[in-house]
Amino acid sequence: MRTTLLAAAALALAALINPPQGAAADLKLGVIAPLSGGGTDWGIGTQRGVELAVDEINAAGGLRVGSETYRVSTVTYDDQYSGQGGTTAATRLIEGDGVKFIFGPLGSTPVLAAQAVAAPGKAVILSSGYSPRILTPQGRHNFRVTLATPEFAPAFIGWLRRTNAQAKRVGIISPNDATGQSVVPILVDAYKKAGFEVVLDEKVERGTSDFTPLVTRMIAQRIEVIELDSSTPGDAGLIVKQARQLGYRGMIMQTGGPAIDEVVNIAGGLAEGYTTMEWFDAGSPEAAPLVAAYRAKYGKAPMNAFVPIMYNAAKLLFEAVKRAGSTDVTAVSAELEKLEGHPSLFGAVRWGGQERYGINHQLMTDFFIAQVKQGKPTVIDRVRP
Amino acid sequence: MALLLDSDDAPSARWRPLARWAAWAAAAAALLAFPLAAGGFLTHTATLVLLTVIGAAGFHLILRVGLVSLGHAAFAGIGGYTSVILMMTFGLPWIVCFVAGGVSAAALALLVGPIVLRLKGVYFVLITFTFGEILRLIFNDWQSMTGGANGISHIPPPWPALMDTRAYYYLALFAAGAAILFCARLLASDFGRKMDAIRESESLAEANGIPVFAVKVIVFAIGCTLAGLQGSLQAHFIRLISPLAYSFQESLNFLVMNVVGGSNSLVGPIVGTVFLVALPEFLRGWVEYQFIIYGVILVVVMAALPGGLVELWQRACRWITSLSTRSGR
Amino acid sequence: MFTFAILSQIALNGITLSAIYILVALGFTLIFGVMRIVNFAHGEFAMLGGFALSFFYVSLGLHFLVALPIAAVAVGAFSLVLERVVYRRFYQREMPGMIASLGVSIALMYGGVALWGTHQRSIPSAFSAVYTIGPIFVTAERVVVIGVCLVSLALFYLVLRFTRIGLAMRVVAEDRITAEAQGIDTVATYRFAFFISTAMAALAGGLIGQLFSLSPFMGLMPLVKAFIVVILGGLGGILGAAIGGLVLGLGESFVSTFYGASAAQFISFGLIIAILLFRPQGLVGRKEG
Amino acid sequence: MSVLLAVQGLGKSFRGLRAVNDVSFDIREREIVGLIGPNGAGKTTAINLISGAIRPTSGVVRFRGADVTGMPAHRLARLGLIRTFQATNVYAGKTVFENVYVGTFSSRPSGFWPSLLLTAAFRREREQTRSRIEALLEDLGLRDLADTPAADLPYGYQKMLGLATALAGKPKLIMLDEPAAGLSAEEADLISVLIGRVRDQGVSVLVVDHNMRFMAKICNRMVVLHHGMELTSGPTADVVRDPRVLEAYLGTEHSVA
To answer: Which of B199, B329, D29, D165 has the fewest CB atoms within 10 Å, i.e. is most exposed?
Structure first.
């Protein structure tokens, strides 16, 4: 009986062999994003951003490459925000679906895992994790399409220095996860360079919901700036609410995000003055067509920052494929590098990162400083890293 | 093979030896030929299944003395981290690291086992849960050694040829086969009978001269060793190790595999693992309902099918036999 | 750091937490004591309580103090369906019951995801006032939380001590066989105990939603706390749950304020292991058998 | 007849409550000794203390001349002291044959590897064990039920099987905790005959039971416990006529009613 069961199991698996790959005129793009668990909203944003760009190019008749016109489609897999999930999803896209271009993942661990699968040269990966290890001189096909902490922290904290000349004592609250652990040293460094003193640096386990002990501690240490780093939107909202309830009067900053809508939702009136960065100003005139397309396709669901970021990344990729005249991974990577100055949703393309990572694969974009004013998120400044 | 699985009560008497050998040969051939027929992704998945089976079999052994360890995944973590750190920091050859992965898990189990095994039932579940979480916190917070929450990436394969998924499949197949044969032999031996006696009644087993505590410690150590070996093989396959993969949810997965497959025989965890990995494939497009279905399956199995899918199969066989004898008349 | 102001603030925070922990743990320990089931889905009933409160309070616009008990009763009533379909099959069978309740937990959690999505949401503050008593900040929210917990604990005690069904629950928990022999309707007793247990969890869930936030995954926290409380206090005891809850709430508040959240976590886990090994009956419990 | 088991000053207290207090008695070879007393007198506790299930707070237990006080039950079983329980005496999921097979472990070499590797010596030894089990089952009239799961047996047969399992361990002394409880008079008689035969084969027996008729028939001597203390002991005929014994039993009967 054991034997028959084993044989049956093996046959069942064999029966799952993937269907034949699509016709030549079909270009499949891969998306890896968290679609279950905590990061789901960001994952859906990533997926939708790519889909909007794909709809747009298909509506225009498809992607012309050399003599051929491709119809573009997407395949999305859930990475559950984990390393193993990243490996499985990337293997599946590359080996199973024959995908050569991948958008996401957006957590540091799954990005590193997906890059390991794609090496050497099996796919271009346009990801958005915060870890500094995502960009290396060897990773010729890895690009980061969001600003990460090393890029925006100095500029954001510089802005804080300019606008708050007296503040000195900083307390950092960060999640004790992959992102928090990689980012905090960078933040501490940036605060020190700007002349602040980092008095407390607290790591919080996932699932914590009572932050009053931490905040009590911050108040007792006469902290003037509470920095929320990469705390999830929900946690950020709770910390803001509990801090204000305990009579904290200083600044609350989040060098990371985006979370402002959730913070207002959770903390209500107590969110006043919470300051964070936005990758994108959805109220600007350039954003209007994208917002309209989003509303048309997805209705009233909130549009988070990953939608414009990944929409923009997909459009950059299409341009590079067009210029390369092929879907060859190496050729497309080379053309992506040469897009410097090309107009995009975020202004003219700027690649950076040479000094920090040894490779110019970091997409540099201006970002916005947003603050809750009279209960509403308001963009108050624009900063260039 | 027949010799390896020798046991007094094997229901195999019905089978003609030839047919039995043929079935074994067919199964072996199917498993060996699998990567040739299947694509890269399926081979990748099959490799993961084979590796998971090793840990699930370890969990099964512990379950067979009536204990549920929610720290099982953490022991896989011990094996994985030990192996990876020895290889990447100290440059030791893989086979040494692999053995060290198993030995470290065994050593920790022998250290902790005599303490935690003083507890039974629900209390054992709680203490292993707590112990597993402490290990996970250590993996997460000891950044200089374990790379913290980011873990360690770019782990080299055991040797360069195993960079290829198909090659790794055969390593996994060999390892899983060896582990399963070992467990099958163990359970069929006198030691296995002692384990079963303990699960049925500890005090009676003790009165019948079975050193209950010692048997439990040994079983716990063997089960954890298998977890450690799985952890090592898996880390070098995924080429990335991070604490998230060793949380108590992963231990729960081992439990679900055993319960769904069947907790009364070694076939259970094998079937359960295949089922749990294959299920999402059948539920594609239902991703958001997948876990709801898991939960319902768990309840249904516990309520109506305590022997798991294996029991379902046995019942089906019996039903077919009864049908054919009836129609034969 | 160890000033009077801070210590009293910590005590206040700790008591709020304790109140919630006790509410959760009492129901958890009641189900174990009466039916011998470790209910892994206990936290999910708290989660359902949070969303039910959100429905009655936010969507229907009922007064908070009206919506809260209605939500708890609604969840309790819903749980009776699960009691009938699932739990009843597993009474007095510890291991199978635990695994089945795990299934219920997973199904409810992801049922919540399918219905409400994964993002954290909040229940707007019903009481936004903040009082300052000397150097301490007291929010009306927390006063209400403590008040609701005290009232429901008192009710629970009265029911258990002075009603027929309360007596029945105590007798069944003590010795089921004798209880049956003496003609106690165990099925009705189980059903009532189950209802009380899940309703208390739902109440706690509502308070957690008000104080903190709501999400389908929020059930894990109350479950883990319930575990710790009953280990501290001994599984199956009422007084134990109260003392365990106080120790955990105050201890957590104190340690994480002075030594950080990670330290609090390590210490509470270490404490559990020590207690399980040296006093498995809990700090106040009696030895079994 | 030499002394097989010597119990001296045995005592156990739970949280200051003395369940067993200063109990002493001997069991000689080929002797059936009854341990009697009203409910709560500490009979089962005494068996638990002697068999190593719980550790005594005071006193000494000597078995075959060696001090075995507090020795774990499985080691005592290997020395030849095997007990049965009031309730669970069979492995419900195993067949009759398998139950008895488990019983043989305490009388066989316990090596881990020979069985795992199925050495020739192990197989030979197992073959002998198998014949021995078949003979035992034959002897007890359980032969035809060898492949029946223990859970499917009628209650009387389960009691019998428990006894068979204990005997398979080749005990020198067997301690039976209420072997006749819940049996019909006819079944009890069967068990008493069996116990007699066991004694005739050279095994000593310590029996605990409420059924005085049953006890009086089989026991050579009796030890009476009351409130954890030894009330009296002596030949069966003397003990059953002792007015203190009668009073102890009746006293509790009244308090129960």
So the answer is: B329
Residue D8, domain extent: 3-256
A21, pLDDT greater than 50? no
Measured between CB atoms, does C25 come within 8 Å of chain B? Answer: no
CA proximity to A351, closest of A370, A338, A334, A332? A338
Q: Does C231 touch chain B (CB under 8 A)?
A: yes
Q: Which residues contact C278 (CB under 8 A, 6 or more apart)?
A: none
Amino acid letter, residue B73: A
Residues 86-115 of C with CB under 8 A from A: 113
Question: What are the residue boundaries of the structural domains of chain A, listed by start?
Answer: 23-146+286-348, 150-278+368-383
Residue extents of the structural domains in chain C: 4-278
Q: Which of A10, A92, A112 is the closest to B34 by Cβ? A: A10
CATH domain A150-278+368-383 topology: Rossmann fold (3.40.50)
The CATH number of the domain holding residue D94 is 3.40.50.300
Angle between helices D120-140 and D155-168 in degrees, nearest 10: 140
How buried is A281 (Cβ within 10 angstroms: 0-12 exposed, 13-18 middle, 19+ buried)?
Answer: middle
Taking CA atoms, what residue in B is nearest to D99?
A: B197
3-state helix, strand, coil in chain B (%, to 5): 80, 0, 20
Query: For strand D204-208 and strand D32-36, is the pairing parallel, antiparallel, or unpaired?
Result: parallel
Instruction: State the best of B124, B292, B294 to mutate against chain C, taking most chain C CBs within 10 Å.
Output: B292
Question: A111-120, A210-219, B149-158, C171-180: which range is least confident on average?
Answer: C171-180
Cβ contact C228:C28 at 8 Å: no
| Residues making up chain C, counted from first to last | 289
pLDDT of B73 above 70: yes
Which DSSP symbol is given to C124?
P
Averaged over D109-133, what is the pLDDT? 89
Strand order in the sheet with A376-383: A197-204, A169-175, A225-227, A251-254, A275-278, A367-373, A376-383
As a whole number, mean pLDDT of residues A137-157 equals: 90
Q: What is the mean pLDDT of residues B191-206?
A: 93
Q: With an 8 Å Cβ cutoff, are A245 and C208 in contact?
A: no
CATH of C4-278, one of 1.10.3470, 3.40.50, 1.10.40, 1.10.287: 1.10.3470
- The answer, yes or no, to whether C and A have at least 3 beta-carbon pairs within 8 Å is yes
Does chain D reach chain A with at least 3 CB pairs under 8 Å? no
pTM: 0.88
| Neighbour tally for B303: CB within 10 Å | 16
- pLDDT for A38 beyond 50: yes
Do A191 and B255 form a contact (C-beta atoms < 8 A)?
A: no
CATH code given to domain A23-146+286-348 = 3.40.50.2300
Q: What is the pLDDT of residues C42-71, one digit of tens each?
A: 999 999 999 999 999 999 999 999 999 999
**Arithmetic mean of pLDDT over chain C:** 87
Question: Tokens 């419900």 identify what position?
Answer: D92
Q: Which residue among B126, B133, B290 places its CB closest to the CB of C276?
A: B126
**Beta carbons of A265 and C122 less than 8 Å apart:** yes
- The number of domains in chain D is 1
B positions 40-99 inside 8 Å of C (CB): 66, 68
Q: How many CB pairs below 8 Å do chains A and C form together?
A: 94
Chain C residue with the nearest C-alpha to that of A38: C118
Residue of C89, C113, C273 lying closest to B131 (CB–CB) = C273
Taking contacts as CB-CB distances below 8 angstroms, the residues of chain B near A95 are 39-41, 44, 165
Q: Would the CB atoms of B208 and D51 count as touching at under 8 Å?
A: no
Res. C175 pLDDT band, cuts 50 70 90 = confident
For C186-229, what is each residue's pLDDT tens digit?
A: 888 999 999 999 999 999 999 999 988 888 989 988 998 888 88
Residue D217 predicted with pLDDT over 90? no
Q: Give the closest of B116, B141, B299 to C100, CB-based.
A: B299
